[in-house]
Design a protein that fits this description.
This protein is mainly beta. The chain folds into 2 domains: 149 residues, no CATH class; 140 residues, Immunoglobulin-like, CATH 2.60.40. Helix content is 0%, strand content 60%. A 6-stranded antiparallel sheet has the order 6-5-4-3-10-11, with no helix packed on it. The protein is elongated, with a radius of gyration of 27 Å. About 6% of the residues have low confidence.
Length: 298
């Protein structure tokens, strides 16, 4: 008997407790038997730092009964999950969902698909062990078949700084720095408001999509926006300011995003203004708009 694994699909949804993004990943585990797939009786999988079913994500699949069982933290009892149903089982390491789990047979092999969601407290590099048992009681023993890194708890983003943080003029290229300890790609949206008060209406209000790589200048009413792609000849304008794509750009490091925006203020927008910044991550954790500077429009 032999076995292997692969990771196929990822389904994510928002868990509103703590505003965390949960991702159910479907892993495929393959076991083969030269006497035919019907000769297989059990297939077992352990995710853990060491080969131990205690405090592990330990799943056993009964071929004849067509059900999976997730072991509890002690490894002594388990909760049954029928594949393809709304059944769920959970321990301190992972959740096994019947929905998204399935099995398929060929002449000599079995492919078990398991929808697993790992707990943030189980973070770190884990080994993937598999075993198979046939109807005669012959087994492979647990064999190392891969590794998987479990992400830790979501950490909130921060707004770092606006440069310049003070000054005056009809406009210039400003830089805005945002950070996320889970990596810059964990950021989804960042925003800047230049206005005398914290209000996106009749403001110089710019949003930036990290995944899309575009900025959008919000209209006077705060109800719609015009897209500007940094580095291109795109231009957006409202009654407060003008945003030019040619002089705008974005730069990233592992954990930071620096957004350079070429902004020209309209004469009618004259006066002392505050600069507010915000950031949002994939778990929908937001910083809120925070003051990061001032600017006087002549």
């Amino acid at each position: 008997m032999e076995g292997g694994w692969s990771q196929s699909a990822v389904i994510c949804y928002i868990g509103y407790t703590g505003f965390r993004l949960w991702c159910s990943q479907t892993f495929s585990f393959i076991a083969s038997d030269p006497d035919g797939s019907a000769d297989l009786k059990w297939l077992g999988i352990i995710f853990n730092g060491v080969l131990n079913g205690v405090r592990a994500c330990y799943v056993a699949y009964n071929v004849v009964g067509n059900y999976a069982a997730l072991a509890d933290d002690s490894g002594t009892t388990s909760t049954l999950v029928r594949l393809g149903t709304a059944d769920r089982a959970r321990n301190s390491q992972c959740t096994l969902s019947g929905e998204g789990s399935s099995v398929a047979f060929s002449d000599s092999s079995l492919t078990l698909n398991l929808a697993l969601t790992f707990e943030p407290t189980f973070a770190g590099s884990k080994n993937i062990y598999m075993y198979a048992l046939d109807s005669a009681g012959s087994g492979t023993g647990f064999v190392l078949r891969g590794t998987w890194r479990v992400s830790g708890p979501n950490r909130p983003p921060t707004v770092v700084a606006a440069t310049p943080s003070a000054g005056s003029g009809t406009g210039r290229t400003f830089s805005f720095v945002f950070a996320d300890p889970d990596g810059y790609s964990d950021l989804t949206w960042v925003g800047i408001i230049v206005n005398s008060v914290l209000n996106g209406v009749r403001a110089c209000y710019v949003l930036y999509s990290v995944a899309g790589g575009y900025a959008a200048l919000v209209n006077d009413e705060g109800t719609a926006a015009t897209v500007v792609r940094p580095g291109r000849a795109d231009v957006a304008e409202n009654s407060q300011c003008r945003l030019a794509g040619v002089q705008s750009s974005a730069a990233v490091t592992d954990s930071t995003l620096t957004l350079y925006l070429a902004v020209t203020f309209q004469p009618a927008f004259a006066g002392a203004k505050n600069i507010y910044m915000y950031a949002q991550d994939r778990a929908e954790v937001i910083t809120g708009f925070l003051p990061r500077g001032t600017w006087t429009v002549p």
